[in-house]
């Protein structure tokens, strides 16, 4: 049988291990919460630097008069006029081979021939993208490249690449 003097040295070690584990859990939770806050703050900073804005855009080679308008507000709401219906997806591997870096980028996959006019919402997707959502559709806008050495997103003339081998894109210009 162990005497109480034999157990005494073990209690502080067990206590230290639990305290260390508790400290590690607390630090991990704080790091996760801080990371989420920084991401949210960065998204809000991008949102505030972009909106309010209105763009007018057309598909490469489209007939005149077949353009779309997108208006973004700082609160995450948007208004779209004559936006094509479809969804955002990743390029397939064959399309990705056409990219300079070979990566599978996000692109817009049209669905049907109808267009949508009405309210929408928008969110920041990474540093270079904006997703606009309405009804059962979503669009992805990619910023142009600004600056000379360190490229910054240029939201004056974003584009929306369509999926497919033809490589067409919607090109937008800012409406002031």
User: Any low-confidence stretches, pLDDT <50, length ≥5?
Assistant: none
Mean pLDDT: 75
| Number of strand segments | 8
Rg from C-alpha positions?
Answer: 25 Å
Along the chain, the helix and strand elements come as: HHEEEHEEEEE
CATH class of the largest domain: Mainly Beta
What is the approximate shape?
Answer: elongated
State the major sheet. 8 strands, antiparallel, barrel
The CATH architecture assignment of the largest domain turns out to be Beta Barrel
Overview of this protein structure:
The structure is a single chain. The protein has 176 residues and is an alpha+beta fold. It has two domains: 4-48; 51-174, Lipocalin (Beta Barrel). It is 28% helix and 44% strand. The chain has helices spanning 4-7, 10-50, 93-97, and strands at 53-59, 68-72, 77-90, 106-125, 129-134, 137-146, 152-161, 169-174. An eight-stranded antiparallel β-barrel has the order 1-2-3-4-5-6-7-8. It starts with a helix and ends with a strand.
Indicate the topology.
Blueprint: H1 4-7, H2 10-50, E1 53-59, E2 68-72, E3 77-90, H3 93-97, E4 106-125, E5 129-134, E6 137-146, E7 152-161, E8 169-174
Antiparallel strand pairs: 1-2, 1-8, 2-3, 3-4, 4-5, 5-6, 6-7, 7-8
